[in-house]
Design brief:
The structure holds two protein chains of two kinds. Chain A is of the alpha/beta class. In chain A, 50% of the residues lie in helices and 11% in strands. Chain A has 14 helices and nine strands. In chain A, a hairpin with a 4-residue loop joins strand 2 and strand 3. In chain A, helix 1 packs across helix 2 and helix 2 runs parallel beside helix 9. Chain B is built from 16 helices and 14 strands. Chain B is an alpha/beta fold. At the A-B interface, helix 10, helix 11 and helix 12 of A face helix 1, helix 2, helix 3, helix 4 and helix 10 of B.
């Protein structure tokens, strides 16, 4: 296996493991009732995040979306501060005002926004500032493939191309737009769209971190030199669903229980005296079963597509074991401290789980 | 009468209207899954999933309404309506006037709103005050399942533009989807007003008039005026105040626009003290509008407001303190006393 020059498989694997463990720790805290609201993990995106981050340094800026923990972890933001923020405390990274959807680290700089598509125009703004104030710096926008149906993201592609800005749009394609299958919601192909705006286009398999790193390096270097914006299309998967507690995943993991909960009212609705024709109702059943079948197929593929499984193969077992052990200890220490930090937090809505 | 949960009641009202009128369609992000019972009954032609493209599918709803359909466009959360704001401000609000009154836009914009379950400052706003500022836009936020079903029927049958806001704390659909209420480790029972989340719905369903408030509690010392979850917080505060010998009336506006001015003025005249409890920003919205109403009517009532003063924080205890909770309402009333 030939690795791209400058690519360090040991460093990449360590970064991916740390991202994974932090996300797992927060997903567990969510399940334990300690993370309020939603949690969108970046599990499955580690290959993309790590491959792109390998080329960022100094004041290169990142505009992040709702899966923002991993890029911050990868750039070195204090993981305990992130955890305390996500667990909901004024001692967190953003003093309890952000929560996981709006994490911000001005020192990097990096900022997350929960409105789909906004990372594009925000990164364009950073790039304008870089071009004037810090030539040689780039801005990276991380967004999902579903964000490509948001007008402002397309406008951002155009703006970046029209003004030849040092920005790279990283499209993390996990095939799902919240609960819908993206191809059902999207016309044409995304690389083609980006190309037609005049962006330099590269693509990679997000399960192979060295491939991501290779093409990300091309686009970042190009942007850094002032040769214009790039678009990086990377495929990945989302084994945790749209967010923790995703209703589709619940259905896959507990079909009998969910059928009992959701079934009766749906059957009653499908049999109602008034409503659509027989064909309409059959079409509805088809929509739902196709959605379920696709989700089930993707869920079974999750292990094979796991970027960590592939990343581990790029180094020897002893090194990989040592990295896993060290990172596990560090993340365990941070989450234990974070849980302790919120133990006296006054809590509303959380009955159990130790957050009283 | 049938007992229903709040979200179920909204869909019941919409389903009854859809069964009676096949010009009614609904579309929005994830509606096929979230409103799966409507999908099962009416099929994917009338219950459509959209891409994440609020600006386009809201404007499309306006075009469809002009061309003979009666769309119910769902903007998942009202915060995301901001992405398509122009459709509301420059089209839905204006086209009837531009046509000299010849063109109706029978559109319902349905959206979740509100906080208390801790989802951060971009997923917890209500924005009903700002939305109410534009001509021809009607805004309603029901506080009980019965109102939810009846007001949805009202909204869909009317030829007006109606923004129908369902409170995320009251709707089991949203609380489960966004708040992770299905986790056995969380319990929202301390926060969710039981009467708002579940209750009897009259069957057969009848619509309510546009712009009619409901008096939820009688009391002669102070009038608490609110909408949505705020109504329940007022009822909670009224019980506490009763313990101190202060009798509060609680007026549920239901509609932020048009406002039931007569009902507000009647309560204000009777009590001489008005406290507006508003889960929206304090500036440029409902609470200021009611103050203006009192001044214009020449009512010398004492006045206070309990509203949202800044970005809603994420941490649960910080969010609770920033929202118009019962403790803040009690304090505001006692200061007026």
């Amino acid at each position: 296996m030939t690795l791209p020059s400058g690519f360090d498989p040991v460093r990449a694997y360590r970064t991916m493991v740390r991202m994974r463990l932090v996300d797992e720790a927060l997903a567990q805290a969510w399940a334990d009732g300690l993370v309020p609201g939603e949690y969108h993990s970046g599990i499955g995106e580690e290959g993309i995040n790590t491959g792109v981050l390998a080329h960022l340094s100094g004041r290169d800026s990142m505009a992040l979306d709702h899966r923002n923990t991993a890029p911050l972890v990868g750039r070195g933001t204090d993981i305990k501060a992130i955890m305390i923020e996500v667990l909901g405390s004024e001692d967190g990274l953003n003093r309890g005002h952000a929560g996981h959807m709006h994490l911000m680290d001005p020192d990097l700089p990096a900022a997350a926004d929960g409105i789909v598509g906004t990372s594009g125009p925000l990164a364009v703004g950073h790039a304008i500032a870089h071009a004037r104030l810090r030539p040689g710096r780039v801005a990276v926008a991380f967004h999902g493939e579903a964000a490509a149906n948001q007008g402002m993201l397309m406008e951002a592609y155009n703006l970046a191309a029209a003004w030849t800005l040092p920005v790279v749009f990283v499209c993390k394609d996990n095939k799902w737009s919240i609960t819908t299958y993206t191809t059902e919601m999207t016309g044409g192909d995304l690389a083609g769209r980006a190309r037609s705006f005049g962006l330099a286009v590269e693509s990679a398999d997000g399960g192979r971190v060295e491939d991501v790193s290779r093409v990300a390096g091309v686009l970042v270097a190009r942007a850094r030199k002032g040769h214009g914006p790039g678009f990086l299309h990377v495929t990945c998967h989302r084994p945790g669903g749209h967010f923790e507690g995703d209703p589709i995943l619940r259905l896959l993991k507990d079909p009998a229980g969910q059928a009992k909960e959701l079934g009766p009212s749906m059957i009653e609705a499908a049999r109602a005296d008034t409503g659509g024709s027989r064909a309409d109702r059959l079409a509805a059943a088809k929509v739902l079963s196709l959605r379920g079948a696709r989700a089930a197929r993707d869920y079974t593929l999750r292990a094979r597509l796991d970027p960590l499984r592939h990343g581990r193969r790029l180094l020897d077992d002893a090194t990989a074991d040592r990295i896993e052990e060290q990172e596990r200890a560090a993340v365990q220490r941070a989450i234990t401290q974070a849980r302790a930090a919120i133990s006296s937090r006054p809590t509303f809505g959380v009955a159990r789980g130790g957050a009283r | 009468m049938t007992v229903m949960r709040y979200g179920q009641a909204v869909d019941f009202g919409l389903g009854e209207a859809m069964a009676a009128d096949d010009r009614i369609l609904t579309w929005g992000e994830d509606v096929q899954l979230i409103h799966r019972d409507l999908l099962a009954r009416f099929g994917p032609d009338r219950v459509r999933d959209t891409p994440i493209s609020e600006a386009a599918f809201l404007y499309a709803g306006i075009g469809a309404a002009m061309a003979g359909l009666r769309p119910v466009v769902e903007i998942m959360l009202v915060d995301f309506l901001a992405v398509g704001w122009s459709g509301l401000v420059n089209a839905a609000s204006k086209f009837r006037d531009f046509s000299g009154g010849r063109w109706q836009v029978p559109l319902v914009v349905r959206a979740g709103c509100g906080g208390w379950y801790t989802d951060g400052g971009q997923h917890s706003q209500t924005l009903w005050g700002q939305i109410s500022a534009y001509p021809n836009i009607h805004v309603v936020c029901p506080s009980t399942p019965a109102d939810a079903a009846r007001l949805m029927l009202t909204a869909v049958r009317s030829d007006e533009v109606v923004v129908f806001l369902e409170h995320q704390l009251l709707s089991e659909q949203w609380l489960d989807y966004l708040g992770g209420a299905s986790r056995p480790t969380v319990d929202f029972s301390q926060l969710v007003p039981a009467d708002g989340a579940e209750g009897e719905v009259p069957v057969p369903l009848t619509p309510l008039p546009i712009g009619q408030a409901a008096l939820r509690r009688e009391g002669s010392d102070v009038a608490l005026v609110s909408v949505g979850v705020g109504v329940h917080r007022c009822l909670q505060a009224a019980e506490v105040l009763a313990g101190s010998g202060i009798e509060a009336s609680v007026l549920d506006l239901r509609w932020v626009s048009p406002l039931d001015a007569d009902a507000v003025l009647e309560q204000a005249r009777a009590a001489g003290r008005v406290v507006v409890v508003d889960e929206d920003y304090v500036r440029g919205g409902l609470s200021g509008e009611i103050a203006a109403l009192l001044l214009e009517a020449g009512i010398p009532a004492r006045y206070a407001r309990v509203a949202v003063e800044g970005t809603l924080p994420f941490a649960p205890h910080l969010e609770y303190a920033a929202l118009p909770n019962a403790e803040r309402i009690v304090t505001a009333v006692k200061v007026l006393k």
